[in-house]
């Protein structure tokens, strides 16, 4: 919901005092909305990222792909500073998010919308109240206007008629659409989708694909989409990054990725069971193990 | 072996430090939430307090009844059965009221708090709040903590009243103790400091039980097993903490 002057809803918030420096930096328009440099992150003994570099272009749908366990969701959590990297920088609109205080980071997050893998709807609130939640928390808009905005967003995802339902009454696809309405209710600058296609039937998947593209183009936002559904990503994304072994293995448009000679990219794009990403997890010799000699 | 002991101690100290920081954050945010988001606190007083009323009242009646029976049975050996009212009042107001209410609270409201917060964490609801620029500690944990802190003294007061009613029904109604003597003995022997001790215990137990419940829920491993374990830990740790604190407060107030 951008007004004619381009002012966004969070400008109406009064909870925190405006932070002049942050706002100035936020309004600087660079080509890349997010820049990640030399990112290292480990979980326990396992290194997830080793010097990762990614630029997310402004106003585009950018897909981050990779085999399961490569750290796609972890990357989103790093971008939104739910976790912190061990080395490297993440800049959003030119601001290094590691330098922000918690208050400033919360302020920054008002420019984000995030669609979680399972929707993450608040289970004790109705669909309407879930979508209204960010408005009630961060603005002092009158109830009539909140109702108007919420119904507009629910209409955009085709669920205006489900406004009074509870999350437990929704199907997986409906829950994700409600979560999408909630993610965009504050008119975010960046919309993040974590595995939006997982577990959906073809119709729901088609609806989500169409919504991702429509929201990005209609609202002029930047979208980051983490997924391993190659077909859907090919339909919706402008640019894709394939992550493997803690780094970007390949990047470009979906067509360019398909043409990449790399064995890994070919294995991923064509869904081959074996290749650089081995089918078998590291294990002792099969025959030796069956004969019980592996423990000797 | 020494290495294991060393890491166990380090782990314990780390948890203790994290718990202290968590407690400070909860306390630091409590006044503003109490004033600015009072409706959230009222809702939690209903969830933690009003929803625990049935178990508290039923338990109180029978605890009072047992005090009436035991008191009569023992005091009548010394022809002092008229003092059964004073005996029941002392036991309830100073010890059984706060302690049993806290244990029941941990079982009913504490587990509900832990599992609710743990499940919110497991289903990414807390992360979603963070992403909506809302601090879950302020929006979810502090109102629940305050709800528990406010509920406990009220529940203890209700427990005491119903407990005394139960003692009266058994001692006067069933065993024939004189009703005037029952109340007069109580009035003559019970002093205000005895009442204050019970109130102090109820406030301290409410604080500890609520804090432990939200801590365990917030730090639950976000899996079904993790939430289950956190819920169990809430009851066990709260019960131990309440009994230790009861001893300490009793010793300090003697």
Supply database-style keywords.
heterodimer, A: 296 residues, 6-stranded mixed beta sheet, B: 254 residues, 9 helices, 0% strand, elongated
Helicity level of chain A, as a percent range?
Answer: 25-40%
**Helical proportion of chain B, percent range:** over 70%
Mean pLDDT of chain A: 82
The dominant shape of chain A is globular
Helix/strand order of chain B: HHHHHHHHH
Number of domains of chain B: 1
Broad structural category of chain A: alpha/beta
The share of residues in extended strands of chain A comes to 15-25%
> Can you write the helix and strand succession of chain A as a string?
HEEEHEEHEHHHEHEHEEHHH
Output the number of helix runs of chain B: 9
The main pleated sheet of chain B reads as: none
* Greatest interface and its participating residue counts: A-B, 23 and 14 residues
The N- and C-terminal alpha carbons of chain B lie at a distance of: 43 Å
């Amino acid at each position: 919901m951008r007004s004619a002057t381009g002012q966004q809803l969070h400008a109406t918030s009064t909870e925190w005092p405006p932070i002049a420096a942050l706002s100035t930096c936020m309004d600087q328009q660079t080509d890349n909305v997010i820049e990640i440099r030399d990112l290292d992150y480990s979980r326990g003994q396992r290194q997830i990222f080793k010097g990762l570099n990614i630029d997310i272009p402004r106003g585009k749908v950018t897909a981050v792909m990779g085999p399961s366990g490569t750290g796609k969701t972890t990357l989103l959590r790093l971008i939104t500073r739910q976790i912190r990297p061990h080395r490297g920088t993440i800049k959003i609109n030119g601001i290094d998010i590691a330098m922000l205080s918690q208050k400033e980071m919360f302020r920054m997050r008002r420019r984000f919308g995030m669609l979680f893998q399972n929707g993450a709807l608040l289970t004790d609130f109705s669909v309407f109240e879930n979508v209204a939640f960010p408005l009630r928390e961060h603005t002092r808009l009158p109830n009539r206007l909140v109702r108007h905005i919420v119904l507009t967003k629910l209409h955009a995802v085709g669920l205006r008629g489900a406004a009074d339902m509870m999350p437990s009454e929704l199907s997986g696809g409906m829950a994700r659409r409600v979560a999408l309405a909630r993610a965009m209710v504050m008119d975010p600058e960046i919309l993040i989708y974590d595995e939006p296609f997982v577990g959906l039937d073809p119709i729901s998947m088609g609806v989500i694909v169409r919504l991702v593209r429509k929201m990005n183009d209609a609202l002029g936002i930047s979208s980051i989409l983490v997924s391993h559904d190659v077909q859907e990503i090919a339909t919706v994304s402008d640019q894709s990054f394939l992550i493997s072994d803690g780094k970007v293995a390949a990047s470009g448009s979906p067509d360019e990725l398909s043409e990449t000679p790399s064995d890994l990219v070919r294995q991923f794009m064509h869904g081959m069971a074996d290749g650089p990403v081995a089918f078998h997890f590291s294990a002792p010799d099969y025959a030796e193990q069956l004969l019980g000699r592996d423990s000797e | 072996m020494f290495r294991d002991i060393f890491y166990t101690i380090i782990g314990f100290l780390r948890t203790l430090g994290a718990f202290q920081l968590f407690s400070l954050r909860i306390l630091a945010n409590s006044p503003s939430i109490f004033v600015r988001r009072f409706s959230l606190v009222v809702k939690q007083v209903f969830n933690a307090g009003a929803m625990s009323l049935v178990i508290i009242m039923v338990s109180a009646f029978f605890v009072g009844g047992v005090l009436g029976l035991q008191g009569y049975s023992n005091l009548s050996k010394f022809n002092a059965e008229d003092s059964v009212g004073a005996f029941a009042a002392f036991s309830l107001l100073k010890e059984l009221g706060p302690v049993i209410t806290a244990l029941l609270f941990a079982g009913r409201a504490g587990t509900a708090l832990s599992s609710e917060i743990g499940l919110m964490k497991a289903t990414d609801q807390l992360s979603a709040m963070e992403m909506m620029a809302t601090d879950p500690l302020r929006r979810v944990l502090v109102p629940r903590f305050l709800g528990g802190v406010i509920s406990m003294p009220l529940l203890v007061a209700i427990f005491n009243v119903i407990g005394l009613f139960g003692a009266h029904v058994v001692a006067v109604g069933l065993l024939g103790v004189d009703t005037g003597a029952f109340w007069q003995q109580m009035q003559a022997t019970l002093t205000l400091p005895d009442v204050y001790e019970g109130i102090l215990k109820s406030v301290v137990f409410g604080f500890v039980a609520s804090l432990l419940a939200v801590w365990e829920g917030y730090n639950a491993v976000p899996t079904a097993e993790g939430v289950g374990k956190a819920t169990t830990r809430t009851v066990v740790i709260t019960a131990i903490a309440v009994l230790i604190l009861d001893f300490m407060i009793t010793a300090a107030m003697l």
